[in-house]
Amino acid sequence: MKILVPVKRVIDYNVKPRVKSDGTGVDLANVKMSMNPFDEIAVEEALRLREKGVATEVIAVSVGPAKAQETLRTALAMGADRAILVQTDDEVEPLAVAKLLKAIAEEEAPGLVILGKQAIEDDSHQPGQMLAALMGRPQGTFASKVEVSGDSVAVTREVDGGLETINLKLPAIVTTDLRLNEPRYASLPNIMKAKSKPLATKAPADYGVETAPRLKTLKVTEPAVRSAGVKVADVDALVAKLKELGVA
Amino acid sequence: MSKTLVWVEHDNASVKDATLSTITAASQLGEVTALVVGSGCDAAAAAAAQIAGVTKVLKADDAAYANTLAENVAPLIVTLMADYDAFLAPATSNGKNIAPRVAALLDVMQVSDILSVEGPKTFTRPIYAGNAIASVESSDAKLVITVRGTAFAKAAPTGGSAAVEAVSGAGEAGLSSFVGAEIAKNERPELTSAKIIVSGGRALKDSETFKQVIFPLADKLGAGVGASRAAVDAGYVPNDYQVGQTGKIVAPEIYIAVGISGAIQHLAGMKDSKTIIAINKDEDAPIFQVADLGLVADLFNAVPELVGKL
Ligand SMILES: Cc1cc2nc3c(=O)[nH]c(=O)nc-3n(C[C@H](O)[C@H](O)[C@H](O)COP(=O)(O)OP(=O)(O)OC[C@H]3O[C@@H](n4cnc5c(N)ncnc54)[C@H](O)[C@@H]3O)c2cc1C
Ligand SMILES: Nc1ncnc2c1ncn2[C@@H]1O[C@H](COP(=O)(O)O)[C@@H](O)[C@H]1O
């Protein structure tokens, strides 16, 4: 079976984003960009399933600008077999991403699509569930364990209160949580090898998907900033402060 | 006036607090109908009927809805949405699992994790780990929204007297099945509604040490217990203790961070707490930039001393 892994190019998680002074968004000029961390986990899981002989091919997909090629090359360097870039400079919302992924999944017929549970920029938590809905497939979101057996997959999910395991008929959609695995680093030889792996470039129109946004961003502002308070000298001083706060 | 349908988070017997904030958000948009989906959920429906501001309760009671599998539940909601303008769910693991499935079936772009209702179709929501707040306007005919619990006051759990109406849907979709759950027994207050939270970080060394150091302080204060991702990844505590951008979002009266450095992903989950207290041996730890009260000390001395003196 094939596994499709959608990967998004996002601001690196170590960077503290700055809101642009004109309130139109966040300043991404000269900011380090990386693969969304949850998508690294998704790529890793797909690779492990291939290494176990469950999957035969891992295909990475990204929707985004030409630079998203770098993100796909990272996936290829980790070990994905080939990549598809749906190239557009427009901002593509989760619903449209899901529609594009559906079109690609219909062409490729993967047994699993593994996405991140959220991308650390928009934190929308949507494309996986939307893709599952549009394709009429089951969804295993926030996965911390994925076990394929026969024509089904057992997914252990990180839910409020603990863990839950569900069984899904294949083909299915899975979204990753942090504890699923620890992604590998691409080795230098593999980074070199990735350069010659196939990367197809498409446009949203090739799939007949309309990507005009449904949500209009009116403005982007800085949240109220907290300022540093006081340092107390010792535990006694802390106890006194806690008493003032009505505790203890 | 628009008609809203609110997903009720419950355990069949009672309604979870996250629902109450969602009802407040929904009432800012229009009339509120509460949707109780489950198996044997009469008591939860009765409790929902008492929430102030709820004008009607729809109850879908079916064995197929016992574990709120999204594949079974989403089609029910989509059918009901023929009569509503907006569907709102708390941004809990259930809400985040189900709402986007509903949105896609309605061909709607969901507005996730809203912080405020600015107009009939305009909302604010956090982006970039809460380092920016976007104000967004939807152009969709119907709205699908998830609500950040800490951003809205809780509706009063009593005072209402809505009628309960039974509804049914297609039930079993035949795509997924529930296998089992490992829900950690926790005697302490739930993180999302606790008044005080004590959280521990990587500095706590291991599960035993975490218990020995953090739990007595939490118990003394009647507090809930949280953790950083590092502490959860290292197995000190279960996953649902994680506070942060990708864990639970909390805003208690008092948040005590013990041996936590204060990475932006952690701050994203707790920086709206009323008073933040940090105990860390590194005086330059970023957590001190947001802490109202900081104690630079070795936690292994400071915390037991604090427990003794409280
Ligand atoms: C995609 C992604 C999502 C993430 N989501 C989250 C999230 O939701 N929540 C979250 O918390 N993190 C999250 N993180 C991780 C985050 O970036 C940090 O790595 C993490 O918060 C660090 O945890 P920590 O503060 O416990 O550990 P550290 O950063 O290692 O800090 C330990 C602190 O303990 C102090 N210390 C050590 N010994 C003592 C002692 N004896 N006494 C007192 N102080 C001591 C040190 O000075 C240090 O400040 C995420 C990261 C990524 C990439
Ligand atoms: N532009 C994109 N290209 C490829 N995958 C995406 C894109 N946007 C979102 N995804 C996938 O959807 C997941 C959740 O993203 P989101 O809910 O948008 O924050 C990501 O982890 C990716 O797997």
Question: Your description of this structure?
Answer:
The complex is a heterodimer of chains A (248) and B (310). By secondary structure, chain A is an alpha/beta fold. Chain A has a single domain, classed as Rossmann fold (3-Layer(aba) Sandwich), CATH 3.40.50.620. Chain A is built from 6 helices and 13 strands. Chain A has helices at residues 37-51, 68-78, 94-108, 127-135, 188-194, 235-244, and strands at residues 2-6, 9-11, 33-35, 57-64, 82-87, 112-116, 139-149, 152-159, 162-169, 172-176, 199-202, 215-221, 230-232. In chain A, the strands form 2 sheets. A 9-stranded mixed sheet of chain A has the order 9-8-7-10-6-1-4-5-11, sandwiched between helices. In chain A, β4 (57-64), α2 (68-78) and β5 (82-87) form a beta-alpha-beta unit. The longest helix of chain A is centred in the first third of the chain and has 15 residues, at 37-51. The N and C termini of chain A lie far apart (60 Å). The mean pLDDT of chain A is 96. Chain B is of the alpha/beta class and 310 residues long. Chain B folds into 2 domains: 2-166, HUPs (Rossmann fold, 3-Layer(aba) Sandwich); 191-309, TPP-binding domain (Rossmann fold, 3-Layer(aba) Sandwich). Helix content of chain B is 26%, strand content 29%. Chain B is built from 8 helices and 16 strands. Chain B has helices at 17-27, 42-49, 70-80, 93-105, 207-221, 229-233, 264-270, 299-309, and strands at 2-7, 30-38, 54-61, 86-90, 111-114, 116-119, 122-127, 132-138, 143-147, 163-166, 176-183, 196-200, 224-227, 254-258, 275-280, 293-296. In chain B, the strands form 3 sheets. In chain B, strands 5-9-4-1-2-3-10 form a 7-stranded parallel sheet. Chain B has a 5-stranded parallel sheet with strand order 13-12-14-15-16. A 3-stranded antiparallel sheet of chain B has the order 6-7-8, with no helix packed on it. In chain B, α7 (264-270) links the parallel β14 (254-258) and β15. The radius of gyration of chain B is 21 Å and the shape is globular. The chains are: A alpha/beta (248), B alpha/beta (310). The interface between A and B is large, with 83 and 91 residues. The complex binds flavin-adenine dinucleotide and adenosine monophosphate. Flavin-adenine dinucleotide (FAD) sits between chains B (201-203, 228-231, 242-247, 259-261, 263, 265-266, 269, 280-282, 285, 298-300) and A (13, 37, 120).
